[in-house]
Design brief:
Blueprint (H helix, E strand, L loop, with lengths): L1 E2 L2 E2 L4 H16 L23 E5 L5 E7 L3 E7 L1 H11 L2
Antiparallel strand pairs: 1-2, 3-4, 4-5
């Protein structure tokens, strides 16, 4: 990987740590990044990812999905959002 003319070789676990640190930095940005998908955005999708779900004590559900590039990506979903997600996936 090269940033600002400096090149460094990273192992998979180091790349995972870098992604985690960048993700934490992005999550704390104000103002937040725009909510829509930017035009021309390029991405790699993961077909049929490994996933896990846990019900939380407050009624929310924790959905964790394994993306091939981003690693484990957690989402906390309220009961209403779980219903909306189900409805979107079954249309």
């Amino acid at each position: 990987m090269t940033i600002g003319g400096q090149t460094v070789a990273l192992r998979p676990e180091q790349i995972g740590k870098l992604i985690e640190e960048l993700s934490n930095a992005r999550a704390s940005m104000t103002p937040e990044p725009p909510p829509g998908i930017p035009p021309g955005w390029r991405f790699v999708s993961t077909k049929n990812p490994v996933m896990a779900v846990q019900k939380q004590s407050n009624g929310d559900h924790l959905l964790v999905m394994r993306h091939t590039g981003h690693g484990w990506v957690p989402f906390s979903l309220s009961p209403d959002m779980v219903i909306q997600l189900y409805m979107m996936l079954t249309k």
